[in-house]
Amino acid sequence: xxxxxVMMEEELISFETAKLAKEKGxxxxxxxxxxxxxxxxxxxxxxxxxxxIFEKYAPLIYLAPTQCQLQKWLRIKHKIHIKIEAVAxxxxxxxxxxxxxxxxNRTTPAKLGYQNIINVQTTETPEEALExxxxxxxxxxx
Length: 142
What we know:
Layout: H1 15-23, E1 33-35, E2 40-41, H2 51-57, E3 61-63, H3 67-78, E4 80-87, E5 92-99, E6 115-118, H4 126-140
Helix pairs in contact: 1-4, 3-4
C-alpha cells in the first residue's frame, strides 16, 4: 500500500481556536491577531518590543498563528502531536492526536508508547481536519 502525499495550505487558525489557544496560554509571536469582533487585524503586531501594547489590549485581542505554529506549540509545550490521515477511498481526512512521552529536549514524536485519540469526524480538506485536531488538543489541556 502506498501513502499519498497531500500538500496543505498554510492557514490561520479560526477565531474559536484562537480563543481556546489564549485560554490555554499560547503566547508565541504572531504577525496577526483577531480583535474582539472576530476580525483579523494588523493593528497590534506582537513582538518582543511591544509586549506592553499587547498587555494593555490583551482582553480585546486573540493571537492568530498559523495552524502549523499552533500545532508546533502543542507538540513542544504540551507533548501533543497532531497528524492528519487520509481516509480511503473517499478522499476525506481526519485528525489523530498522539499524547507523546517526549524527553524535555526533543520536539519530534518518539517511537515510545503514546496514546492515540482519533477524531472520527471526517472532513473534505486536511486543513479542516487539522483545525478540528487543534481544537480537540486544546480542549484536552487541563
